[in-house]
Amino acid sequence: MVNYTNADTQKEDILNDNKGKAGVYRWTNIDSGKMYVGSSVDLYRRFMDYYNIKYLTRAAKSSLICKALLKHGYSKFNLDILEFCNPSDVITREQYYIDNLKPEYNILKVAGSLFGYKHTQESLAKMKEIALNRSDETKAKLREAALGKTYKHTEETKIKLRDAILGKKHTNETLEKLSFIQSNRIKHPVAGFKLKVADIQTGDTFLYYSLRIAAKELNSNHVTLSNYVKNGKIFRDRYQLTKSTS
Question: Would you say the pTM of this structure is higher than 0.70?
Fold first, then answer.
């Protein structure tokens, strides 16, 4: 086991020592003793993510360890490489440490990795139940977050929409105004297909209405995401990307 007693001052050592290596690691909060166990086939790349504040901020919404690192700072954490292993063994070894150490920051107690990780039927059922029981308000917020914008209709717009539904006829003056609004509105490109992003660390699933929107949210590009959809591999050792038919 390799110990780094201060994740802040030993950043360079952590990155340099783990280049080209696969293995299982542990973050430990110095004050509370709470732990997080993870694994990666590319430890250098994984730790580069952890030292990326933008990545932490985005991931903190669904990751307790990322949230804790942001809140307390790297100086409050020790980092241990529990063991180096073959890339094909990282999931098995991660699961071993999760079962034995029972890390508090791990939301899911099932290890996941690059090598074809699939949720158990029980996990999938729980995820589906959570999704089905979300309130309409929560669903709307998730939909707006996926689109990257929050849309709020003015009272004037609501009246126009209601009139359109009821079949109310407008005067020529009103029609001219509506035509002007329509011609000057911001037009958004039509999405190629919807993308479902399943976070295998937290069990959360998000729906994006285009590859470009998902790429912006994941700090990547649409070509890269498209390739991961085609080959079925796990994006950044964490996200399962699939086309959505819903």
Answer: no
